[in-house]
Each structure stands twice: as structure tokens, then as C-alpha cells.
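Hi F.,

I've been meaning to write this up properly since the lab meeting, where we talked about keeping a consistent format for the predictions we share between groups. The idea is simple: the sequence comes first, exactly as it goes in, then the C-alpha cells exactly as they come out, then a line or two of notes. No screenshots and no reformatting. I'm using this chain as the first example so we have something concrete to point to.
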Amino acid sequence: MKTMTCKQLGGACDKQFHATSFDEIAGMSKQHAMEMFQKKDTAHLKAMNEMQELMKKPEAMKEWFENKKKEFEALPEK
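Output, unedited:
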């Protein structure tokens, strides 16, 4: 089991996600983002806008995603 925070995954808060795979933790982060979007959380909306800008550049988005996956895989098991 590994842990990453919302901020580590491009978000805006220190909420922790615990998972055994990067895909699983990415899914948790996405669900959290949707909840924050529905609550109109200003900090998360700003982070989402930044991610949307990154998504306009497929190569940059792919590189960001791969770097986050490497970061996850380098984390110690807890």
C-alpha cells in the first residue's frame, strides 16, 4: 500500500489516498476532484483549470502522467 496526497497528484489539498497501484490511486484522485468540483471548492477548481491547460498538450500530459506514475512507484510500501 502506498500513499499520495491530492497535491502530489495535481490537486489542491493534503487529503491522502492509499492504494496498491497507480491506476487505483489516480481513480481515487479523480473521484475526489469530482466531489470538490460539485462543492465548487475554489482551490480545487484552480488546480483543475491548470490540469485542463496541460491536457491541451498531449505530450506534456503524457509526460506529467508518466512522472506521477514513477513518483508513485518510488514510494515505500506502508
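Notes:
Residues 22-38 form the longest helix (17 residues).
The beta strands are 2-5, 16-19.

If this format works for you, I'll send the rest the same way.

G.
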